[in-house]
Amino acid sequence: MMKVSIIGAGPAGLSLAYFLKGRKEFDVTVYESMSKPGVKPCAWGLITGIEGFLPIPKGSIISEIKGFRIYLNNKLIFDIRNKEKLGYIIDKPLFLQKLAEDIGDVKFNSKITLKDNKYYLNDKELDSDKVIIATGHYSVEKSMTIPAIQYITDYEIDKEVVEFYFYSGLLGYAWIFPDREGSKIGIGGYAGVDELKERVKGILKGRIKQFHGARVTDYGVIEDRLNGNYVGEALGTVYAITGEGIRPSIISSKILADSLIDGRDFRKEFKKSKLYWSLNWHAKVLKMSKERDPNAVRLSKAITSSDPELVLRFAIGDFNRLDLIKLFGRSII
Ligand SMILES: Cc1cc2nc3c(=O)[nH]c(=O)nc-3n(C[C@H](O)[C@H](O)[C@H](O)COP(=O)(O)OP(=O)(O)OC[C@H]3O[C@@H](n4cnc5c(N)ncnc54)[C@H](O)[C@@H]3O)c2cc1C
Fold first, then answer.
1. Is ligand 1 within 6 A of the CB of residue 119?
2. CA 83, CA 142: separation in Å to the nearest integer?
3. Rounded distance between C-alpha atoms, residue 172 and residue 92, angstroms
4. What's the pLDDT at 211?
5. For residues 27 and 24, what is the distance between their CA atoms, to the nearest angstrom?
6. Residue 301: CB within 6 Å of ligand 1?
7. Domains identified in the chain and CATH numbers
8. How far does Cα 252 stand from its chain's mean position?
9. Which residue, judged by its Cα, is nearest atom 21 of ligand 1?
10. 15 C-alpha to center of ligand 1: Å?
11. Contact between residue 93 and residue 39 where contact means Cβ atoms under 8 Å apart
């Protein structure tokens, strides 16, 4: 039996443990430095697409998202409403807590340290055949991440709608997502925290209950880490343009779990996936914007003047080469 230690009880680490659960070949333990899951700041938006292989307990669904609004310089550009749900606002701590309970062997208050290529819990070396790093942005170089800040307020917004705000002069965006009570109002991008705070003031509504922030990886997949020892945001599985990391991290764990179970090479399996391809395109578009369009003029224009359905498909990683050409022009390829 292979003893597997997973470091980090975020969406990546817990879903990996869930996918390996009940397999005789693996004895899995998850270590989490915090006292409970889901403490890291997040807006809790989850696009549909993982329900087939992971339970989303009903109680952890705050609302089903059926529409989105896009603003440019605070002017409403699109107000789209779907019949079908596009995703959910989940109570992420509860969702992760339920997953942890389902898995069983999750040790909280257990910060793992690395010394001379060995992993330790309270000075005792981890007794494992394989250690998998699922520590999110905490293990990613700062230069591969951007800051994101968020206010939790009592401002009530339509529970079925998420709002995105783009600005001339900012490579990044702000959002208003519904919460169980009130909303989460945040912003992330290529700017200092003070500038982000200043920008988001324009859409900040309601009484502020909490303010927090974290970094989010915008680099794309970190190729050196495709060795089967990293998963989730620690591997770079965040859509660089949107900052969406929950669903991609869970999908990366599914690919890693299947590779371990079937004895296949994770690097090869991951590189074959649509996830890898689409994550890399997001990172490439962002890199080109940083180099050639730092004020995001062309990127904002592409997003706000294209067919909203196409923009949505690009945002969630469900696009092809033709879509890229339609959005950004032939020179992108
Ligand atoms: C402000 C903000 C809003 C966001 N909103 C969204 C959103 O709405 N939708 C979305 O899809 N994505 C969002 N993201 C991104 C998303 O939160 C992450 O990409 C996602 O949680 C990554 O999952 P993960 O499991 O890889 O890492 P994480 O969720 O970061 O989990 C890593 C875990 O590892 C633990 N850990 C770290 N170091 C150690 C250690 N040494 N020992 C033990 N444990 C350790 C941490 O405490 C943490 O619990 C947002 C990010 C930010 C910053």
1. no
2. 40
3. 23
4. 98
5. 8
6. no
7. 2-275 (3.50.50.60)
8. 11
9. 246
10. 13
11. yes
